[in-house]
Give the backbone structure.
Amino acid sequence: MTAADSNTLRRQAAPIARALNEVAAATGKPFTMGSEPGRFRIQKPVYLLQRLGYPPARRFGYDLYLMGPYSPALTSCYYALEDDGLRAAGAASDLPGPMVQAVAEGLRRGDEFLEGLTTLLDVNRRTHHLPAALAHARAIKPHIGEPTWGRYGDSSQPTAGSPKAPRYELSPPRARRG
């Protein structure tokens, strides 16, 4: 990789690194690149930011892989930052607070939730039909427990964009009681 290529990757990755720093501050858990779980925990929040409409995250193309959506281009960017470290990204990002909180909440719910949520979002992006997307995601992710999928089962409940829900809510619809 040439020095110019490396500088280009650093410029592309810097706003993402700043956004991840904000999410890490909200969760109290820093992101690491040195392990598969660490890289998973970078891929999924950036995918969520893309689906929430954060402009710097839109440049990364994703394909559905074993553990959910994966972007080779994002991998290149965070390896370009590995020498600098995520903390060297500088100033605060322009990431809206509700996006920070939504992604932080997804991270707090754990890896299984992130894998299920990002897979469901990716399949739904392709099908535009939530019941079909849910059925397909369940079929390709049988290792994800029913408590995770069950959170998505009742589409009659309020969801993101409804008057009472925050604009960037990542929480699945809640099952009705009684």
User: Anything to note?
Assistant: The chain has one domain: 3-150. Residues 3-27 form the longest helix (25 residues). The beta strands are 63-65, 68-70. The CA atoms of residues 18 and 93 lie 5 Å apart.
